[in-house]
Amino acid sequence: MLISWRYRERNTLVQKLDPRARWIFLLAVMFSVIQFWDLRFLLFFFGLALLYYHLARLTWRETRRVWTFVLILVVIIIGINALITGRGGSTAVLRDTRHTVWEARWVVPGVGWVIHPFITVEKIVFALAQMIRMLTIAILFIPVAYTFNPNHYGVTFRRLGLPDKVAFAMDLAFRFVPTLARDFSLTLDAQRARGYEVEKLSGGLIAQIRKMAPLIVPVTINAIVGAEDIVNAMDLRCFGLRPRTWLEELRYRPRDYALIGFSAAVLVGSILVRTLGRLGDFWVPGAILRLFGF
Amino acid sequence: MERKKGYAFGTREVVYSALGAALYGVLSFATNMLALPAAGNLAFRPAVCIPMFFGVAFGPWVGFISGFLGNIIGDALSGWGFWFWWDLGNGLMGLIPGFAASMITDYRATRSFVIADLFSILGVIVGMGLASLSEMWVSGVDLNTAVVGYFFPAALTNIVNGVILVPILMVAYAAIVGRTGR
């Protein structure tokens, strides 16, 4: 099995930004967007996310699998939420002034249970707002795997304030990945040579899980045995006694300060709009009501 | 016998946290690639036993980082992006079994299996519960959708995987504990 990071150098504006500034931007926008249900505000964040995604210059070919997953998830979750469970998440959707577009009343034969599905204009608008919100967050965070250098995670989060040891654990984890992937591949081949057919696991769910043990156990136990040498080597070099230095040094440039300033403005602005302005609640556009004849 | 684990975070914990995270990430990615049985958004992911086992064997912080960072690595390898609340939920799946670490002295004893499994189940319920409920204010789903659409599929498969595989890993680990010299 070949393990390859989705990351590659693309010479884009997004990748030229300091990783710390990018994390601050992503988190600020995420915590801003989740405060709103008003389509007008959501569309602003959606546009911002699309711009960021565009600047990351990802291709459809490399992201189509994750997009398929995200779109299926969005449709399933919004479908269950709006139709099956019979309401939207925002309390505004439950207001008495419903504009019903479609409803039915079915009786389950034998038990006599009544099922009463209905769709209102409010539910449709809520589903639309929900979809835009979920897609905005997905669009913001999908580029993370493709544009952040795995070798920079440790130093990035150290400089963002994480303790030295935790940041080093992050750094070390990314370095372990290729070795462990190779070990897994060797173990898989060795077990296959003994007649183990992972693609043809038979039996029930429990039996199938138990049959995964010949793959998982040797890889894990071998890794633990090998890790003792690393612990000893690090202890001998007095790891953790003094603050450590990092091979990669991160430096903010003017554009990074600009992005951080913009991120802070977006977050603070969103909080002020919600708390002081009392704007951003669920809103049904008059045009959509008219579209359905109300 | 190894030094009994607690809440300290020294060199040993740094290395095992990194190892647990890398293992969880690689095994999640690898078992996804093997196209194991799954239905809908109900994923068959045996690798969830890794943060639980690392919690049980090396303490709560190691379990937490294994789950949290391991999920980030698995997503980075698969190209899924970054989903903070689900990463945090996976971290809790390792953290809570870690509270059982100080109660376990013999990794072969039936009592140890029961304790490890109970804490693993609790970890899954809390971790997946937090991640699922977070969708209520992140995605705006209602409680029913959070429970039916997110929590049940994630929690049920994780509990079955953990309950079966964590004791198997404990037995295997018992065989090497004496060799570590710690």
What does this structure look like?
The complex is a heterodimer of chains A (294) and B (182). Chain A is mainly α and 294 residues long. Chain A has one domain (18-291). Chain A has 11 helices and 4 strands. Chain A has helices spanning 13-16, 19-33, 39-56, 60-84, 121-147, 153-159, 164-193, 205-210, 213-236, 254-275, 286-291, and strands spanning 100-103, 106-107, 114-115, 118-120. In chain A, a hairpin with a 6-residue loop joins strand 2 (106-107) and strand 3. In chain A, helix 6 (153-159) packs antiparallel against helix 7. Chain A is flat. The N and C termini of chain A lie far apart (59 Å). In chain A, 31% of the residues are buried. Chain B has helices spanning 11-33, 49-58, 60-78, 84-98, 110-138, 143-177. Chain B is built from 6 helices and no strands. In chain B, helix 4 packs antiparallel against helix 5. Chain B is 72% helix and 0% strand. The chains are: A mainly alpha (294), B mainly alpha (182). At the A-B interface, helix 4, helix 5, helix 7, helix 8 and helix 9 of A face helix 1, helix 2, helix 3, helix 5 and helix 6 of B.
What does this entry show, briefly?
The complex is a heterodimer of chains A (294) and B (182). Chain A has helices at residues 13-16, 19-33, 39-56, 60-84, 121-147, 153-159, 164-193, 205-210, 213-236, 254-275, 286-291, and strands at 100-103, 106-107, 114-115, 118-120.
